Amino acid sequence: MSQRVCRFCSCSELHSFVDLGLTPLSNSFVHASNLDKYEVFYPLHTYICQACLLVQLEQYESPTEIFSEYAYFSSYSDSWLQHTKEYTMRMISTLGLDPHSSVIEIASNDGYLLQYFLEHEIPVLGIEPAQNVAKKAVEKGIPTVTEFFGSELALQLRHRGYAADLLIGNNVLAHVPNLNDFVTGLKILLGEQGVITMEFPHMLRFMQGNQFDTIYHEHFSYFSLQTARTVFSYFGLEMYDAEELPTHGGSLRIYAKHQDDGSKLDTGRVEQIIEQEQAAGLDSIPTYQAFSHKVTQMKRDILHFLIQKKNAGKTIVGYGAAAKGNTLINSCGIGKDFLAYVVDKNPYKQGLFLPGSRIPVYSPDKIKETKPDYVLILPWNITAEIMAQTEYIRAWGGQWIVPIPEVKVIP
């Protein structure tokens, strides 16, 4: 096997971080007609770079294979839509955006965010490689380029007259195998006094919250703010502000500009968050290596709990056919003998089967039909939203199970 090197700095000294064994791609749902066919399983083993501290996963499949047709539609989460509405109003106010501005989003999905800028007559452009998802955005009137973003596409867009006053990337930074080319593209497409905002899960909250299930093959990189700043700075982009968000179990939103843009003041919050990371040991390789033992214990605890409940004759179903749920299910060895089925609001997933486990996916109405004893909330980051949608399970004494950061039953 060829020697592993860091996807950012090319350092060849990589240490094991978390090894979750072999799993299929987390969004490679199985059609009924393919249930008698094999699936491809890939190593799900993350490493950390000695030099830049970037946590990363090897690339086993091309982005085209993973993302050209995608099962995730952002608009099916009410809490996420509210998050983006608030963001839109804040950016319009803070940056003074108007009908003469240019807002571009990378990985714009089904138009979940750009639709709110459009309501204020602010010109937008979406970039979304998944054609099935991009089609939904186009139906909302959002112009969308169905290509993968990088330096080449950025140059093409600049030649067509695009220069972003606001360049957005929500939960896309982790999905990029060629990180350096991607950030180069950001630099090219950003207007002279434009602002980049990126949101991504925060490695500090990942480790504090035992969020091992957010490791999956679509996530090539995992960032602390220190590492993200190092990457952006290398390509001439300066982070002048950052804030912590509750989304996805704890995320960061960073604000970046061209290094020679003197129109924006440093808020000091980037340094404050990096100091928190250093206090938690995120600048030390042994901190990352110790996390693997916590993951092993977490997996045992989840399985022990489910075995106890099943041995007591209880029925358990899952809510949310999420990527993180598939990582948890496959890495813990949870099959149909534990979960009778999983439900999801997204019609695109209903009638399919989870990758690996082959657990069937139904509409949430299935819960009312079968009245299970427990509903396992797989996308635990939106627990409150799911509990509100399934409040009716209390009528028959049903309870919710939240697996992360530790197994918990909510009556």
TrEMBL record:
GO biological processes: methylation
Gene3D superfamilies: 6.10.250.3100, Methyltransferase, zinc-binding domain (6.20.50.110), NAD(P)-binding Rossmann-like Domain (3.40.50.720), Vaccinia Virus protein VP39 (3.40.50.150)
Superkingdom of origin: Bacteria
UniProtKB keywords: Methyltransferase, Transferase
C-methyltransferase domain segment(s): 246-405
Coiled coil location: none
Molecular function in Gene Ontology: methyltransferase activity
Residue ranges constituting the Methyltransferase putative zinc binding domain according to the UniProt record: 6-67
PANTHER family recorded: BLL5978 PROTEIN, TRANS-ACONITATE 2-METHYLTRANSFERASE-RELATED
Protein name: SAM-dependent methyltransferase
